[in-house]
Amino acid sequence: MMRYKGSLSRFNYIPYLFILPAFLLILLFKAYPIFETIIDGFKNGGMWTLSVYKRVFFDMSFWNSFWISIKINLVMLPFQIILAFCMALIVNISTKGIGIFRTIYYLPVTISLAIATVLWNLMLNPNNGVINSMLGIISIPPQGFLISKSQALWSIVVIASWKGVGYWMIFILAGLKNIDSGLFESAKIDGAKYLTIVFRIIIPMIKKVLLFVLIADTTAGMLLFVPVQMITRGGPEGSTNVLMYEAYNSAFRFGDRSRAAVIVTVLLIIIAIISLIQFRFLNTKDEGSTIKGR
Question: What is the rounded distance in angstroms from the CA atom of residue 237 to the CA atom of residue 112?
Answer without folding.
Answer: 28
